[in-house]
Amino acid sequence: MIKNDSEISGFFDFKILYDQIAEQIPNGSRFAEVGVFRGASLCYLASKVKELGKTNCQFYAIDIWKGRSDQNIFFANCIEYGVAEMIRPIRALSSIALLHFPANYLFSVMIDGDHRENQTVKDVKMSLHRTTDIVCGHDIHLPSVRRAVDKTIGEGNYDIIGNCWIYRKM
């Protein structure tokens, strides 16, 4: 059951995008989110997928969690939302964490970590090789993110939904 994600502090303003991904993700697929903070968005997506009966999906939460308290809050939120068994946390830089996934291993990656242009370029490039279907990200309004996405995917080759960008490989 989807709880009130607004009770989790963070920057989650992309329910429409995650509703679309929840509908599209096949049961048994894998999804990674780069930059999860306290888990509002990932808990929402996992709850939505679970509510749709896709209980065999696996979610990877990639974050450096600078503060131990944020990581503990993230774990507590996963338990509170009833999705802890679906989520695997990876405490690492995205450039290191994404290397551990083989090509085409993930259905989708959401990028919302380091918003510097050079790091966003790295995250997008690495994600493109590791996904079968969707690479997306948050904060397309930031010039650094927009330039990075335009450099790696190409201007006009992705859609914008709210404050997010989405590239469908299919």
Number of strands: 7
SSE class = alpha/beta
Shape: globular
Biggest sheet, open or closed, and with what strands and sense? 7 strands, mixed
H/E element order: HEHEHEHEHEHEE
Mean pLDDT: 91
Helix content: 25-40%
CATH class: Alpha Beta
Briefly note the CATH topology name. Rossmann fold
Widest beta sheet: strand line-up? 3-2-1-4-5-7-6
Structural Rg? 15 Å
Q: Uncertain regions: pLDDT < 50 for 5+ in a row?
A: none
Q: What is the fourth-level CATH superfamily?
A: Vaccinia Virus protein VP39
Provide a descriptive summary of the structure in words.
Helices cover 37% and strands 22% of the residues. With 170 residues, it is an alpha/beta fold. It has one domain: Vaccinia Virus protein VP39 (Rossmann fold). It has a seven-stranded mixed sheet with strand order 3-2-1-4-5-7-6, sandwiched between helices. Strand 6 and strand 7 form a beta hairpin. Helix 1 (15-24) runs parallel beside helix 2 (40-51) and helix 5 packs across helix 6. The longest helix has 14 residues, at 117-130. The chain is globular and about 40 Å long. The N and C termini lie far apart (30 Å). The model has no long low-confidence stretch (mean pLDDT 91).
In summary, what is this structure?
The chain has 170 residues and is α/β, with parallel strands linked by helices.
Task: Show the helix and strand layout.
Layout: H1 15-24, E1 30-34, H2 40-51, E2 58-63, H3 68-80, E3 87-91, H4 94-97, E4 106-111, H5 117-130, E5 131-138, H6 143-152, E6 159-161, E7 164-168
Parallel strand pairs: 1-2, 1-4, 2-3, 4-5
Antiparallel strand pairs: 5-7, 6-7
Helix pairs in contact: 1-2, 5-6
